[in-house]
Amino acid sequence: MNFAPPSSVPPVEASIQVRNLSYFFGRGDLRKQVLFDISLDLHPGQIVIMTGPSGSGKTTLLTLIGALRSATEGSLQVLGKELVGLGDRHLVEIRRNIGFIFQAHNLFESLTASQNVEMAVELTGNFRGKRQQAVDMLSHLGLAERADYKPAALSGGQKQRVAIARALVNQPQLILADEPTAALDKQSGRDVVTLMQHLAQERGCTILMVTHDNRILDVADRIINLVDGRLESDESPQQFVDSHAPKALDQKMFIM
Amino acid sequence: MKFPSLPRIPLAWYNLRHDRPRLLVAVAGVTFAVLLMFMNLGFLGALVSTTTNFYDQFNGDLFLISPQSLEISSTKAFPRQRLYQAAGIEGVQQAMPLYAEYALWKNPETSLSRALFVYAFNPSDPVFLMPELDTLEKRQALQQPNSAFIDRRSRPEFGPQTVGLETEADRRRITIVGQYDLGGGFAADGTLIMSDQNFRRYFAPQPLDQISLGLVLLEPGANPQRVKAALQEQLPADVEVYTKPEIIRKESQFWIQTTSIGFIFGLGVLVSFVVGTVIVYQILYTDIRDHLREYATLKAIGYSGGYLFKTVIQEAILLALMGYVPGLILALGLYELAYNATAGTLPMRMTLFRVIFVFTLTMLMCGLSGLISVRKAVTADPAEVFA
C-alpha cells in the first residue's frame, strides 16, 4: 500500500484545487443539479469553514472532496490527484490520506476506544505499533485513561474525541469535518477546534469544516459561503462577521 | 494489497460478541438446525443399518440371490439346484439354503395377530453366527415339530418370549424353544427362526427346493472375488452372486433410493438446512443493519468492500462453528437416548462421515446466508455517513 508522501505536495501548491466543478443527483427527468461551477483553492495550514443554508450543497461538496462520491464534471484535485473520472478502487486509496470527522461519532460499540482508533492504524499496515499509536493519540486528546472503555461507557464529548483520534491518528494531510461540534457542549466543542487549530499550524494540514456553530467561527482562516449550489462568498472571518452581524449595522446607524 | 500476518482486530468476533442475547439466539438457531440434520441423517443411517445388520449374523462369504429379489423380505425364490452347482466350484466349501417368509404370530396374552418374519434353514447347516445357534447341539431344539426360536428384539406387542410358551403362527400351534438377538429392521417388527422341516409345515405348499437366499462358505485362503467370478460364470442367469459388503450395499440402496424413506429423511435434512440458513441470515442481516453507519465509516476511512465482505463471512463462519459443536454434542446424546429407548433396535450411531458431512452442510448453510446478507454491507454508501 502506498501513501502519497507529503513531500509530493509542494507546500505552495494547493492541497485542494477545484475548477468548474458541477454535480448532479439522479438521472433522466429526475436529474437535478446541486453544485454549479465551483472553483476553489485550499492551501496547507488553512482552516476553512464552509457555511450556507441547508440544502445548499455543502455536504455534497465535502463528500466529493473526500472521495466518497465520484465527480463527473469539472476538475477536482485532492492532494495532487485528480479525482474526476477515478474508479472506486482508487477513490478508496485516496480516502486513506484523509481524516474524516462526522457529526455522529460512528464508533463501533463492540470495540474499545483504542481498538476503534487502531482500525484506522491497521490501514497503514502498521500492526506492531498500532496499539501504541492509538493510545498516544488518545492521550493527546486527554483520553489516556479511557483507552480501554467501550463507547457505551464514554460521554458524548469523549466519544467525539475518540472519533477525532481515529481521524487524526494517521496524520492525514487533509481533514474533512461535518459539524464536528454539533453534539458537544461549549467547552468540549472549543477543545476540539483548538486541537484542530494546532494541527493546522504544527503539521500544515488543510482543514475543511462544515458548521453552523457560530461559537467556533473565529478559528477559521477563511469562511466560504455556499448558497443554492453556488459559491457566494469567500472571505476572512472578520469580513464575514462584518457582513453578517446586524449589530455592526445598528452601531453605525446609531452613530449617524 | 498484502499485510504482514500480524494480529488484526477481529472485528467479526467482537461484533458478534457485543450483543450477547442475540449471539445466544443465533448460536441456538444454528445448533437447532445442526441437531435436526444429525437426527434426520441418524434415522436414515439407523434405517440402513437395521435393514442390513442381520447380514452380520449370516455365516456366508458369498450370497446367491435371484436378480428379481429387491431385498431380504421380498425375495423371489430360485432353485436349490444352484447350490449344488455352486458347491462343485473350486474354493467353495459349503453352500447352504435359507428360506424366508412372513407369518402371522398371535400374541398369547392379547390374542392379536401380527406379521413377523421367519427364517428357516437346515439345522445341520451353520447358517447363523448368533451364540444361541452356533453349534449343532444348540440347534437340536429346532428339530422338534412346530417349534421355533424367537428374536429378543421383536417388538413387545408380539407378547412374552419365554421358552416353552405355546401360541399360534399362521393358525398352527407353535412352541418357543429358544431365543436370539438379530433385529428385523424396517421390514419386520419381529423375527423367528425355525428348521426347514417346520417351514414346510407352516408354509405348505411352498416346496423346499425353491430357496430365498443361498449362503456360500469359502475354503480357507480362497479369493472371494475370484470364486464370485467363477460362480457368476458357471451359474445360470436366475441367480446373482454378491459378497457380504456388496449385498449390504445393494439392500441399503434399495431402502434409500427406491422407497419414500430416503426421500423423507433427505427432505428433513433439506428443511433443517433451509431453516438454519434463514435463522443465520436474519441474525447477520440485523447485525449489518445495526452497524451500517459503522461499516460505511470504515469505507469512508479507506477500507474496501472486500474487507467488509470478509468480516460478514467471518461472522457467518464463527456462527457455524459455535452452533455446530453443541449441535454435535446434543446429537450424540439424543442418539444414545434413541438407541436406549428402542432397546438397541434403532442403532443410531455417529459416523465420521456424518460428522464431516453435517459440518460441511453447516458451513454451507452459514456461508450461504452470509453471501445473501453481505450485499447490504458491501454496498454501504460511505457518503451516507455525512448525511
- The number of helical runs of chain A is 8
Mean pLDDT of chain B: 89
Rg over alpha carbons of chain B: 29 Å
Strand content of chain B: 15-25%
Unreliable stretches covering 5 or more consecutive residues of chain B: 1-5
Q: In whole angstroms, how far apart are the ends of chain A?
A: 65 Å
Shape designation of chain B: elongated
Number of helices of chain B: 11
Structural class of chain A: alpha/beta
Unreliable residue stretches of chain A? 1-11, 251-256
The structural domain count of chain B equals 2
Order of helices and strands of chain B: HHEEHEEHEEEEHEEHEHHHHH
- What about the largest sheet of chain A? 6 strands, mixed
CATH level-four homologous superfamily name of chain A: P-loop containing nucleotide triphosphate hydrolases
CATH class of chain A: Alpha Beta
Order of helices and strands of chain A: EEEHEEHEHHHEHEEEHH
Would you write up a description of this structure?
The complex is a heterodimer of chains A (256) and B (387). Chain A has helices spanning 58-65, 88-95, 113-122, 130-140, 156-168, 186-203, 237-244, 246-255, and strands at residues 16-25, 32-42, 47-51, 73-78, 81-82, 98-101, 174-178, 206-210, 222-227, 230-235. With 256 residues, chain A is an alpha/beta fold. Chain A has one domain (44-68, 87-255): Rossmann fold (3-Layer(aba) Sandwich), CATH 3.40.50. In chain A, strand 9 (222-227) and strand 10 form a beta hairpin. Chain A is globular. The relative contact order of chain A is 0.16. The model of chain A is unreliable at 1-11 and 251-256 (pLDDT under 50). By secondary structure, chain B is an alpha+beta fold. Chain B has two domains: 11-51 and 259-386, no CATH class; 67-238, no CATH class. Helices cover 49% and strands 17% of the residues of chain B. Chain B contains eleven helices and eleven strands. In chain B, the strands form two sheets. A nine-stranded mixed sheet of chain B has the order 6-7-5-8-4-3-10-1-11. In chain B, a hairpin with a 6-residue loop joins strand 3 and strand 4. In chain B, helix 2 runs antiparallel to helix 11, helix 7 crosses helix 8 (260-290) and helix 10 runs antiparallel to helix 11. The longest helix of chain B has 37 residues, at 305-341. Chain B is elongated. The model of chain B is unreliable at 1-5 (pLDDT under 50). The interface between A and B is medium-sized, with 34 and 30 residues.
